UniProtKB/TrEMBL annotation:
Name of the molecule in the record: SDR family oxidoreductase
Keywords: Oxidoreductase
Molecular function as annotated in GO: oxidoreductase activity
Species in which this protein is naturally found: Sphingomonas sabuli
Keyword Chloroplast carried by entry: no
Family per similarity comment: Belongs to the short-chain dehydrogenases/reductases (SDR) family.
Domain of life: Bacteria
Length: 241
């Protein structure tokens, strides 16, 4: 990647987004951290407050990049994760998930492409390993991540000629989810054939690979310890610990 480079991380106010912002800042990137309006950026990053559910989110986030080095990395990490399923399907939740989890990444990818000049750039969409073995729990969330997976390949095809690579990372259970008990988390975290829970360093390693692998585009790196070989029939937080 070129020297003098800016990275955008959405959903950077907490969890994996915050960790990614910290790490990239420590590697010498100028980091634009998308956070909720009224929230602060992680240390070492510049805040770009924007609600990913609004149509102008990409404009607001890229406005924070004015006067900075070129954007060479966009990590679409911010996501909505809320309950619904067949029999309890929510049209409002479906729309909200699609706006945040699909429309916002596409708007940001398009904004990057419109501003991109020479050199390599990388878009990384954060998916979910459950796409390899889906279950009906969290229906709207799952459908939105399936849509983002499709958008990853379509964008990769569309933008390859501009030197923009589009890939995805799909981790399994890594951090405890809202509503998940600590007991369940501890039991399910390493419940995969490798017997090893996914950790933040695994995401860092996947990102490092994608940054260096300049001939790779349109790919999804699934990080699940082999869980897809013995797929759970429900979301892991509903399984007995």
């Amino acid at each position: 990647m070129d020297e003098g480079r800016t990275a955008i991380v959405t959903g950077a106010g907490k969890r994996i987004g915050e960790a990614l912002a910290h790490r990239l800042s420590g590697q010498g990137w100028t980091v634009i951290a998308n956070v909720r309006p009224g929230s602060s950026a992680p240390a070492g990053a510049r805040a770009a407050p924007a609600d990913l559910g609004t149509p102008d989110c990409a404009e607001r986030i890229f406005a924070a990049c004015d006067g900075l080095p070129p954007v060479r990395l966009l990590i679409n990490n911010g996501a909505r994760f809320a309950w619904d399923t067949l029999g309890e399907f929510s049209a409002a939740e479906f729309d909200a998930h699609m706006h945040v989890n699909v429309r916002a990444p596409l708007l940001l990818t398009e904004a990057l492409a419109a501003r991109h000049g020479d050199g390599d750039a990388l878009v990384v969409n954060i998916l979910d390993a459950k796409l390899q073995a889906p279950n009906p729990d969290f229906l709207s969330y799952t459908v939105s991540k399936q849509a983002l997976a499709g958008a990853t390949e379509l964008a990769a095809r569309a933008l390859a000629g501009k030197g923009i690579r589009v890939n995805a990372i799909a981790p399994a259970l890594m951090l405890r989810s809202n509503g998940q008990s600590e007991q369940n988390y501890r039991a399910m975290h390493a419940a995969n054939p490798l017997g090893r829970g996914v950790v933040v360093d695994d995401i860092f390693a996947a990102l490092d690979y994608l940054l260096a692998a300049r001939s790779v585009t349109g790919e999804v790196l699934t990080i699940d310890g082999g869980q897809r070989f013995a797929p759970p029939q429900r979301d892991v937080q509903f399984l007995e610990a």
